Hints:
Strand content: under 5%
Strand order of the largest sheet: 1-2
Shape: globular
Structural class: mainly alpha
Helix content: 55-70%
Oligomer: single chain
Number of helices: 15
Radius of gyration: 23 Å
Amino acid sequence: MAEEKSPIGANTNRLPQSILQWPQDRSRIILLQRMGILLGVLFLATRLIASLVTQGLEIAPGAVIGGDYLAFYSASDLVLQGRALDAYDQAAFDAALQSHLASDNLGLLWQYPPVLFFLIAPLALLPYKLSYWLWMVATAAILALALRRLTREVQPQLGDSNLTLWVLMASPIIVGVFVNGQISLLTTALLITAAYRPKTHWVLAGVCAGLLTIKPQLGVIIPFAYLAVGAWRTFGVAALVAITIHGLSAVVIGAESLPAFLSALDRIQTQVATGGADTPP
């Protein structure tokens, strides 16, 4: 009895050989990569031009230029006014947001530990649009440095490390984070560096892991990974850095900053769990 061909095999046999050979053609893969880079760059360029020609901060109804960046900018404004802890007060923070853009659809809350006030403090010294683009370019550059370290050291024989880096930086995920003004480019750079060879590059990895506690859900998990692989020195450096920066923030901003942060987290968690009206869908 003749062996019956599967539908998948039958369909594959009908495909033109040129299509089957496409993934194996290195020149075509490079062409696709370069097209992807071009699309990412062009998309960001159009966003830059659109933000510059737009009057005010609303690029479309209910859409803020920079998205989440308005929260960082408003928190920076409060810090410069000597009212940092007002960021944890829902009404006061919403008033700070509204002072930059009057809208009922912002849905932004402040849920970062007090130590982040040190990082975002200078942002409101510049006009919003300039501050936003400088912040995103700076954090993207930090991520590029972290990725470059990987692309140069991990299987360099696979191809051009510079092209690989550009493909990563122009990927839809990174472009999306860029457009939405999030802090994820910075925290990703810290996470990559903290996780890469922590036993041999223990000082650098430990410092980055300690700094990663600016976003606690990321910073807390890394030390357990260090303990699992026996990276004791790295664990010690991470703990020292985290204790130092958070202790310094308590001294500078005030001991009441930590209870204010925890209270805000509890309120946000309750709203998210119960479908509160003050949290975005």
